[in-house]
Known about the structure:
By secondary structure, this protein is an all-alpha fold. It is about 50% helix and about 0% strand.
Amino acid sequence: MAEYSLVPNAQQQMDFWGQPNLNLMGQVPPPPIVMPSLDMGGGTGLKMPGAGGYNGMANWGVGSAGNSPGSGFGMNMPTFALGLQGLNSLGSLYMGAKSLDLANRQFSSAKNIADTNMRNQTQSYNDTLENKLRRIGSFNETSKEETEAEIARRKLPAYNG
């Protein structure tokens, strides 16, 4: 009697790259993608176009003035990065100043609204108080001078923000 197994043997489970074959339906998986090497140091990889004497990143930006890569300022990548960082800092300062101006204008607007509300509330309280005291004074037959004195004593001062 022949023995049958639902699990294929180890040779059938591996594809031809030595990786586990998860596709057991008889289809061949695609080949792996191999990227070419971009060897910048003069090795056996691809060369940059027109870079006959190119010897890596160290000589990027060496100009005709003779400034060497480690000399600080000049036409090189660290100087470009420093300039770009400076521009970024200036942009951040500018946006910070604009944000501060916007916040100041927003605060001023909110303060104006609150001041207007306080003036209106004070005026409303004083009007209501005056009407109430005049009604009570006319009902009790209080003199006009006494009523005006009571209004002046209880009245809130005008709000000037």
